[in-house]
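Justification of computing resources. Each target in the renewal requires a structure prediction run like the one illustrated here; the chain below, 580 residues long, is used simply to show the kind of job we budget for.
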Amino acid sequence: MNKQTSLRSQSWFNTDNLKTFIHRSWLRIESLPDDVFDNRPVIGICNTWSELTPCNSHFRELADHVRKGVLEAGGTPFEFPVMSLGEPLMRPSTMMFRNLVSMDVEETIRANPLDGVVLLTGCDKTTPALLMGAASVDLPAIVVSGGPMLNGQWRGQKIGSGTHSYKFVDMVRTGQMTTTEYREVESCMARSHGHCMTMGTASTMASLVEALGASLPQNAAIPAADARRGRLARESGRRIVEMVRDDLTLSRILTRAAFENAIRTLAAIGGSTNGVIHLLALAGRVGVPLQLSDFDSLTRSIPLLVNLMPSGEHLMEDFFYAGGLPAVLHRLGDLIDRSAMTVSGKTMGEQVAEAPCWDGNVIRDLSNPFKTVGGVAILKGNLATGGAVIKPSAATPELMRHTGRAVVFDGIADFDRRINSDELEVDENSVLVLRGCGPRGYPGMPEVGNMPLPQRLLQRGIRDLVRISDARMSGTAFGTVVLHASPEGAAGGPIALVRTGDLIELDVEKRRLWLNVEEAELERRKAEWTPPPPKPSGYARLYVEHVLQADEGADFDFLRGCRGAAIPYAAYATATRPME
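Resulting structure tokens:
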């Protein structure tokens, strides 16, 4: 690699004029010795710690490990906060604020004397938000995830965050679990620091970061409570200093080959459908051509190798002990582009060449997969002309080919009001359709696509229906759920034209999602359709006016592309009269 001859931060520190005097003198408040300004790489530690983000509540300690690693490698660390996104608490949806956080990250990095950055990510949207923002600046950057919680344990059984939440609430609704037992489970499920320990969105995004080559090996799976998580953070602090000296920027990591590796990994691990939308957004930031159809063409031959909830029975702690993501990448063999560069300085092939698997029940191989269907399928048809996403590995096999009568809900409030009504005409063959919950419609595309089933069907023992929406669902969820229908209802997409009683055909094998209504009738309905009223002022209005559709990653139209690390009005800092 070509060694970097000059550091970006030195334009703040290495001359004797008024501006550099101010830069250095104010930093003296932090008790910095003289030599920190002497051509040392300045490393930002981008921290999403917040007490309102429980998954990231241990990040102060994690940041300290990174700081020690930076100092040991001869760098100068500066920790800075950005807006944090706590999935369990934020309303209306953390997805509404992903792009805002990416702007916070991008502008903070560019505006300050940073040569490289360590991104501390954990809860679902913090990972794509921080990586998108850093990619838009294109300095050396490395991701350190917070790690999953320890396995949930309740009365002798493993319980998974999210996945068992949905199961238990249905058990309460049908009288199979008491409210006292339901309360008891709370502390048994979330019993350590860390994000969801199922293969939900947080674990998926940590895995995809590792598959992209943007983190050191084992970033995805080391539990938050394990001392090896702190060691990884420390090693990442050391490594970012070396990356700066080697000028190993994100654009050299996030290549087309890296995205293809991540997409194949998404299928092999049974990852969250949210991974699709975040990878599309990230690719848009670095200018890598990526389309929704690529997810289908790249994963058709990829079976499910990882036996983790919600598609299987194990949890992330088991995944780590079995070998973690390096074992998966090794077992994917030639399906992975081994020439892709990683932040370790090694190619992906070099990095996983000897990766062992210690438990073949948790991580299977291609000759003996856990399921023959992988984690992602892309559907198209007149009901989703821009495409829709389903997770076959978490769906009911008997429903993967199904035709049923639509039961339509206009928004989540309408759904909540009517789903358990005795007047609702619904049975086990029905197809629940929820619209008005896409990027513009909600706004913010909430995780409501896995609609709860009517209570009277649950009491009959029915546990799944085909469900279709323009919303998302939690990566911890399960069921035959079609998501991200694009264009969304609020944008006048085909899902806006569905009426209760219409027949809908789903055929996952043929990748078909079809509304059995004559074209002339659909045109008549479209002529009658009226768009929703505009949103009020503020961020919600900015969001609705500029958000792209799900098949383009739901990023803002003005954020696509890399804007680089050049400093606006930088001439002011260098042209100031030298001191006398």
